[in-house]
Every structure is written in C-alpha cells, then in structure tokens.
C-alpha cells in the first residue's frame, strides 16, 4: 500500500500540482501563527509545549481517519493515504522556477533568471553571474527535493504512515516559521522546533545523500560528504549538498556565502569559521549543471521508488 500510495500521489501531482498558496497550507500557517501567539511567553519550554500541541492537533485526527477507513475498506484507507501524500509532497512546487531559470539562462536572459531566482529563494540576486545563478538554483533544487519529496517518502514508509508524512512536513515548517521571522530570530521559543526537526530529518537526510551518491559519482560524493559537509552550519544541508555536488562533479557553496546566509528554500547557511584552504572537488556550476541536477533527482527518485517497491513486496510476502 505504501508504494501504491506514493506512486498514485506522484502521478496526481504531475497532472494537478498543488499551488503553494493552497487552502490547506494556509490553514497550517494560521495554526502555527496562532500557537506561537498563544504559547510564546519568552521561554523555550513554551515552544516545546506549542510544538507538541500542534502535532497532536494534526496527527491524532489523521490517525483516527486512517483507522476508520481501514476498518471500512482497504481501498478507502488507500485513498486516504494517497490524499495525505498528495498534500504533503511538493515535487512540483518549485520545478516551474527551476525550469524557467534554465530556459532563461539557455536563451542568455540573465536578468530574468536573476529575477526568478530572487522570487524563488527570497534572497538578493543582484550582481550574480551565470555561475552564481546556476549554483544557487542547483543548491535550492537539491534541498527542496529532499524536504518536499524524499523526507516525506521516508516518514510515510514508517508504521504510522500518513501521520509520519504530516509530522515531517509540519516539523520542517515550524522550524522555519518559529525561527526565521524578525521578531522570532534568536528567540528561545523556536529552539525546540529546530532541535526536533534536526532529529526527525537525521536519517532521511543521510538516505537522500546516499541515494545521490549511488546514482551519481559515488566516490566523489562520499569524499565530499566526509571532508566538507562540516563547513555548513546546518549539518543536514551540508551532507545533502556535498553528496549531491560530488555526485555531479560540481563544487557547491562559495566564498560569498561564507559570511552570510544562503537562504535557499529553507535557510541553509555556511559556517565561515570552519572554512579552510582546501577546495572541494568538482567544477564551478554552469547552465549545464541544471540539466545534470534534473537527471540526478529523477534517478534518485527512481531508486527510492524501487526500494519502496521491494519493501512492499517483502511486507506482502512476509
């Protein structure tokens, strides 16, 4: 059922992708804002309580509906799973930006590519050349793919199924929503949300990196992962980008980000204090790197689907 749920959800999303401003996502944002306003009294414990309450509000009904559907009919339970995966996946949320940037660069329209990249990543792209635009687009695509697709796959495959997919996506959003806004930056309230997502994403991030290594240049991916991932303040981001860049023979991250935030889609940063004289392996990103990224992501997606299919067979035969 896990494989079929993900397969049908992917097909539906290709045919009818959810808009980034859809009502369901808007409701989650309103819930997060309401919880922050209700619980935030300046203590980390308040953030922990708000996080737990938010998860209970979302996960308990999800599990109850799944249990009722399973009692009535396995096909109804499958339909519920497909709906939840469809709502939590975001494969097409960013692909139009990536494709449009690629087309703009191929036609030599750097101004349009910079504008699209700024809209996508919400960072200042003024003065970026083709290499910078290509690199940041590749980095953003890799992180977005992990957090919108592969991380969801992993947690949906866990025993609690649809609740796991919601747990992953909501915890990722709370880690951003309760830390990135100006009035919450460096506040104790969001610290638990950050730590919770770190542990929730610990295994999926490494599985994504392994998938990139397996379907790309394995040796360079593992070498970059082991020797350069520590340069990033966000450990998971460093692992994914080093493995992904190494798999494609690209050098991701640059001196420009060493002292400033690399916002990406989810506020990844490079730690300037850990940079050394050694240069990561690979070439500077070019327009061709965007096509290489598309190939890497699709190969990794096929690998994940194959593993899920084998897992489903094993469960069925067992």
Automatic annotation (TrEMBL):
Q: What sections of the protein cross the membrane?
A: 49-68, 75-94, 152-175, 296-317
Tell me the keywords, alphabetical order: Cell membrane, Cobalamin biosynthesis, Membrane, Transmembrane, Transmembrane helix
GO CC, sorted alphabetically, is:
plasma membrane
The question of whether Isomerase is a record keyword is answered with no
Membrane topology classification: Multi-pass membrane protein
One GO term (biological process): cobalamin biosynthetic process
Q: Does the keyword rRNA-binding apply?
A: no
Main localization of the protein described in the UniProt heading? membrane
The GO terms describing molecular function are: ABC-type vitamin B12 transporter activity; threonine-phosphate decarboxylase activity
Pathway, per Swiss-Prot/TrEMBL? Cofactor biosynthesis; adenosylcobalamin biosynthesis
Subcellular location, in the record's words? Cell membrane
The lineage's top-level taxon is Bacteria
Q: Which Pfam families match?
A: CobD_Cbib
What function does this protein fulfil?
A: Converts cobyric acid to cobinamide by the addition of aminopropanol on the F carboxylic group.
HAMAP family, per this entry?
A: CobD_CbiB
Please give the family membership noted in the entry: Belongs to the CobD/CbiB family.
Protein's name in the database: Cobalamin biosynthesis protein CobD
Originating species = Noviherbaspirillum denitrificans
């Amino acid at each position: 059922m896990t494989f079929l749920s993900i397969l049908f959800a992917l097909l539906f999303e290709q045919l009818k992708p959810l808009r980034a401003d859809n009502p369901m996502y808007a409701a989650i944002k309103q819930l997060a804002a309401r919880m922050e306003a209700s619980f935030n009294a300046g203590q980390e414990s308040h953030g922990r309580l708000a996080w737990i309450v938010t998860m209970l509000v979302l996960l308990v009904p999800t599990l109850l509906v799944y249990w009722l559907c399973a009692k009535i009919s396995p096909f109804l339970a499958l339909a519920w799973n497909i709906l939840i995966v469809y709502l939590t996946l975001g494969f097409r949320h960013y692909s139009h930006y990536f494709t449009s940037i690629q087309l703009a660069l191929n036609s030599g329209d750097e101004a349009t590519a910079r504008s699209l990249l700024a809209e996508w990543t919400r960072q200042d792209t003024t003065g970026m050349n083709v290499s910078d635009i290509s690199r940041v687009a590749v980095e953003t695509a890799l992180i977005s793919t992990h957090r919108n697709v592969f991380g969801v796959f992993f947690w949906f495959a866990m025993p609690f199924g649809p609740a796991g997919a919601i747990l992953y996506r909501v915890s990722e959003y709370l880690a951003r929503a309760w830390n990135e806004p100006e009035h919450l930056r460096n506040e104790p309230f969001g610290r638990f949300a950050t730590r919770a997502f770190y542990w929730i994403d610990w295994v999926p991030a490494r599985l994504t990196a392994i998938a990139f290594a397996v379907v790309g240049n394995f040796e360079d991916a593992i070498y970059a992962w082991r020797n350069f991932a520590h340069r990033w303040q966000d450990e998971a981001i460093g692992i994914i980008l080093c493995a992904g860049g190494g798999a494609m023979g690209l050098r991701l991250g640059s001196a420009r980000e060493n002292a400033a935030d690399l916002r990406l889609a989810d506020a990844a940063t490079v730690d300037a204090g850990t940079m050394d004289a050694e240069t990561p392996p690979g070439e500077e990103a070019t327009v061709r790197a965007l096509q290489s990224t598309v190939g890497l992501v699709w190969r990794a997606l096929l690998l994940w689907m194959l593993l899920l299919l084998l897992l489903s067979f094993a469960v069925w035969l067992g």
